[in-house]
Amino acid sequence: MAATPEVKVKKAVRKILDEMGVYYFMPPANGYGRQGIPDIVGCVNGAFFAIECKAKGNVPTALQAAEIMKIREAGGVALVVDETNIEAVRVIGVTDV
After folding, report:
1. pLDDT beneath 70, residues of the chain
2. How many domains does the chain have?
3. Which CATH number covers residue 45?
4. pTM
């Protein structure tokens, strides 16, 4: 079975994070946790970050957008990436983002 565009984005993001030596994990989307949590969460240089991965042209759901806003309001970094801006993930390794 071929990987979906979103799965390819997640794989590319994980590769960048691994190259950077960043701590992260992917919360399971199994219905037991809170809905809307980003695909990848972690910490770098003492700062919390979250990344929502999308296929090109897709946007976060209302629940995902609300979680992203809560993370940003709490001082964390939250990104939405697709095939066109995967390299933006590298900003999480920069202090004072």
Report:
1. 1-2, 94-97
2. 1
3. 3.40.1350.10
4. 0.90
